[in-house]
UniProtKB/TrEMBL annotation:
This is histidine kinase. Residues 182-397 form the Histidine kinase domain. It is an enzyme of class 2 (transferase). Pfam families: GAF, HATPase_c, HisKA.
Length: 400
């Protein structure tokens, strides 16, 4: 199980990292001086400038410790680059996200305090971080100290992009905001009409089955409207990035609602949606709309390409991670190449075979990206009993 989230735009981000003009592995005095200033600013023994690539993290500069290139599972900075804000953890051992991290847990260096700022290119992509570390907890830095750390980060980017170091000018977001406003309006207008029309239709229907179908359509249009609002609010059209709108979510009512919404439609398709099973006792910190989209996508994939009986189950795995399993009793056809599924936005098989029984749908690559954005993993498991699409979320997303 990985210990880090993956940016939604990871492929574009990695390409941007590889094209930074001044970003080489040769050390330069300027960057050592910036690291030393950062360490002194927050009274820490260690500071470094990290570069986060596809599978590893390496260092443009390090002071206070010897560090070699390391896998991303051993990195804190993979979390720092997920937003444009500083990431501060006063005591890593008390944070659910990091207490079992290999750099924090017993047997490792047992880091305790971390403060880092993402290094943001002029293109908007984040390629690494300037961060400080200590082996004892700290109080949270003051806003002035964090602002100074961000200024040091901007100096690093300016030096790498061969631009003079100066306070960052406010970014002109007029064009982006205009685009989002127009797109939002064009998407919301037909949705509002659909929603109102179905509501009026529901009020006129007498047959209970038809009323239930209309109610299901209403809920689906409402969900789509919420998803569009979330994407417009939490995305960046310049970089193709998507951010999570995290909230504490109870899985039991979530899946009960999905079962209620889809059971009749699945039945009309001639298939059975068995009652869901939820053995997860604690709520999770997730983007609720994204998780619903993932589960719905997997359900519809099973309806279109799977067996006759479908089910959803929530449980903990042997390590305490959360598993969401969507199963059906169908078998994958020979044309399906599971290895292709794990490539960025590649469909798992021949497009000409999309309609065959058991094929993998277009929603699976998107599901994988959304799961990885949560720091989780996604896989399709086949066996004689059927096919299982498994979403595995890290245990630190559990909330007591």
């Amino acid at each position: 199980m990985r210990t880090y989230p993956v940016p939604f735009n990871e492929d574009s981000r990695v390409t941007a990292v590889q094209n930074v003009p001044g970003l080489t592995r040769d050390n330069e005095t300027l960057f050592d001086a910036i690291c030393t200033a950062a360490a002194r600013l927050l009274d820490c023994p260690i500071a470094h400038i990290s570069v986060v690539e596809e599978n590893t993290q390496w260092y443009k500069s390090v002071v206070g410790i010897e560090l070699e290139e390391m896998p991303k599972n051993n990195s804190f900075c993979t979390h720092t680059i997920m937003t444009g804000m500083p990431m501060v953890v006063p005591d890593l051992s008390q944070d659910a996200k990091f207490r079992e991290h290999p750099m924090v847990a017993e047997g490792g260096p047992q880091a305790r305090f971390y403060a880092g700022v993402p290094l943001i290119l002029s293109s908007g992509f984040r390629f690494g971080s300037l961060c400080v570390l200590d082996f004892v907890p700290h109080e949270r830095p003051t806003p002035k100290e964090l602002a100074t750390l961000e200024e040091l980060g901007r100096a690093i980017v300016a030096a790498l992009e061969k631009a003079p170091s100066q306070p960052a000018a406010p970014r002109d977001t007029t064009a982006q905001e205009t685009f989002l406003t127009l797109v939002g309006h064009e998407l919301r207008t037909p949705l509002t009409i659909i929603h109102g029309s179905v509501r009026m239709l529901e009020a006129r229907l007498k047959d209970e089955t038809n009323k239930k179908l209309a109610n299901s359509a209403l809920k689906s249009s409402d969900h789509l409207s919420k998803l569009i609002n979330a994407i417009l609010k939490f995305s960046d059209v310049r970089t193709g990035e998507l951010h999570l709108n995290e909230e504490v979510t109870d899985l039991a009512p979530l899946i009960a609602g999905l079962h209620q919404d889809h059971a009749m439609a699945i039945s009309e398709a001639g298939k059975t949606f068995v009652a869901p099973v939820c053995n997860v006792q604690l709520p999770l910190l997730v983007d609720q709309e994204h998780i619903k989209i993932c589960i719905t996508s997997l359900l519809m994939n099973s309806v279109l390409h799977g067996g006759q009986s479908l089910g959803v189950a929530f449980a903990y795995d042997d390590n305490g991670n959360i598993e969401i399993r969507v199963t059906d009793d169908g078998q994958l056809d020979n044309h399906v190449d599971l290895a292709e599924l794990y490539k960025p936005f590649i469909v798992g098989g021949d497009m000409s075979q999309r309609g065959s029984r058991g094929g993998l749908g277009l929603g699976l690559p998107l599901t994988r990206r959304l799961v990885e954005l949560h720091g989780g993993e996604f896989e399709v498991i086949t066996g004689p009993e059927g096919t299982t699409a498994c979403i595995r979320l890290p245990k630190w997303r559990r909330r007591a």
